[in-house]
Design a protein that fits this description.
Layout (H helix, E strand, L loop, with lengths): L4 E12 L3 H9 L4 H8 L2 E12 L3 E5 L6 H8 L7 E6 L2 E2 L5 H11 E4 L11 H5 L1 H4 L5 H14 L15 H14 L4 E5 L7 H18 L2 E6 L2 H7 L2 E6 L2 E6 L1 H6 L4 H7 L4 H4 L2 H4 L1 E2 L11 E3 L4 H8 L6 E6 L2 E7 H7 L3 H10 L1
Parallel strand pairs: 3-8, 3-9, 6-7, 7-8, 12-13
Antiparallel strand pairs: 1-2, 1-4, 4-5, 9-10, 11-14, 13-14
């Protein structure tokens, strides 16, 4: 990961209705989403969105239905035009692009993976995967070998001459991912790409995406309404409600430090032991490495694995390693505290 900002969204608003600019003035004056609809017959889609998406990272945008997440991702390639604001890719505002520049952005810079697969039923798997190159004018002799390479990479070797209806849902979504990869674009937009899949297939697809990302370092914008999926995939998590950002940041930090009752409700039922990593609750080492630790663990180990390792003994402590170098210590008593959601812990303290 380079740390460079690939996509920057600034003061982005989207209002649906006959006179969005007039409605925008009401929103800026403090009118909320329900009032805007009831009093002015306009729908507030997005309100003052500010997000930086770093090169080589997965930015996950999540929220309940109607929160604005799909509206937001469609602004990145201007499938939806904003009411106000800026969307910059590599420092250029795509909202100022003419038709030719916008077409090149969609063909060369951004690929998209859809929830409904969007495969052409009359074309073979290989032809579907090669679609992104075909629309650029690349002939079959050059595009199909590239499609075959990525189909093999996503586990579909041998299915190149099949048709979409001959594949399962999970296999069809693998074709969608191969198509996005065949384009060789640096940015992948994934709009609820795994939401239509069965749970086990969905988990396989998440694992495949993470495996590919470790190798390819794409800039991925991933939309989901599922917090477990968001916490698994995200380098940077953005949570929307009613078109506004409620909280954003590193997922582990959000889970441990929800800043709003809406976020607290979201994270209250999460299996924290399975999601939280040692690095999020360790104590950084200041000075010498303790000599009385019960062993060494990796900073990315889950708390679930630590409970198993310690046998549930809360008296144990461990040296935490990153790249085989000690960076912190983990006390099992701190681990147990981290398993209790903050809001529940605070309620318990007030009760007693």
């Amino acid at each position: 990961m380079s740390g460079n900002i690939k996509i920057s969204i600034r003061s982005l608003y989207k209002i649906f209705g006959d006179d969005p600019l007039a409605a925008l003035e009401h929103v800026r004056a403090g009118v909320g989403k329900p009032e805007l609809l009831e009093e002015h017959q306009h729908v507030l889609g997005l309100q003052d969105i500010n997000v930086d998406m770093r090169e080589g990272e997965i930015t996950v945008i999540m929220g309940l239905s109607g929160s604005g997440k799909s509206t937001l991702i469609r602004h990145l390639n201007r499938l939806i035009e904003p009411t106000a604001g800026a969307v910059e890719v590599d420092g250029e505002d795509v909202l100022e692009y003419d038709e030719l520049a916008l077409r090149n952005l969609r063909r060369e810079q951004m690929s998209m993976v859809f929830q409904k697969f969007a495969l052409l039923p009359h074309r073979t798997v290989a032809q579907n995967a090669a679609t992104t190159l075909a629309v650029r004018g690349v002939n079959d002799a050059d595009s199909l070998p590239e499609a075959h390479k990525w189909l093999e990479r996503v586990g579909l070797q041998g299915f190149e001459e099949h048709y979409p209806h001959q594949l399962s849902g999970g296999m069809q979504q693998r074709v969608g991912i191969a198509r996005a990869l065949t384009s060789n674009s640096p940015i992948m937009l994934m709009d609820e790409a795994f939401s239509a899949l069965d749970p086990l297939i969905r988990t396989d697809m998440q694992d495949l995406l993470l495996e590919l990302q470790r190798e390819l370092h794409k800039t991925i914008v991933f939309i989901t309404h599922d917090l477990d999926e968001a916490l698994k995939l995200a380098d940077h998590l953005v949570i929307l409600k009613d078109g506004s950002i409620v909280q954003q940041g590193e997922p582990q930090h959000i889970l441990l430090n929800p800043n709003d009752p809406y976020i607290e409700d979201f994270v209250s039922d999460i299996n924290r032991a399975r999601v939280l990593r040692v690095r999020s609750i360790m104590t950084p080492i200041n000075g010498e490495v303790p000599a009385d630790a019960h062993g060494e663990v990796d900073c990315d180990d889950t708390l679930e694995s630590m409970i198993e390792k310690s046998g549930g003994d809360i008296s144990h402590s461990y040296i935490v390693l990153r790249d085989d170098a000690p960076v912190g210590t983990l006390d099992m008593t701190h681990l147990l505290k981290a398993l209790v959601p903050r809001v529940a812990s605070e309620e318990g303290a007030r009760k007693y």
